[in-house]
Structure formats: C-alpha cells, structure tokens
Amino acid sequence: MDSGTCCIQRFGPEACGLTAAEAAVMMGSAKAAGDAAQEWDDSHNADLPEWKRRCIRNYGDCQERGWTGSCYDCMRYCEGQQEWPLDKCGPPQRKKRK
Hints:
single chain, mainly alpha, 4 helices, elongated
C-alpha cells in the first residue's frame, strides 16, 4: 500500500489534500483487480456521511465498470446535490431482444 492510500484510509481525503473524486481514483487504482461483482470495501470511509460514501462508490463503479457519461462530472454533481445522477452516468443500457 502506498503512502497516499494509507493517508486516505487513516485520515480521509480532505486531510490528505484530496477531493473525494481524487481519493476515489487513487483508492480504485490501488485496489487489486478482482471479480467485477465484488462489492467495494469502503470501511475506510466510515466517518463520511452516507451520501458521500454512495457518491464515492458510484464513482468507482463508473470508472471500473465502464458506465456511460463523464464519471468526474457526475462525481462533482453528486458532491453538490448529494445524489448520483443516474440519468447522466449509469450502467450501459442492454440492447433489447426482438
């Protein structure tokens, strides 16, 4: 684990000079590659409000799972509105069978 990841886990993004979006990117890249269905372990964010934890988890899913839309812009929206804009950033739509 690098020092940036350790700082985020111990003190939170703001104390390490990062925004929540920057921390999510750093934590996502530090996370070992695993099963796509595996849930995010965000126990290191336990001191954050639940809405912010959802924003970070959705941002990670957006980056890792190839969601549509600008993940960064949606993270910024989520930080301001305290909800993820699924109409702008979400899982790709499956094609309907005929």
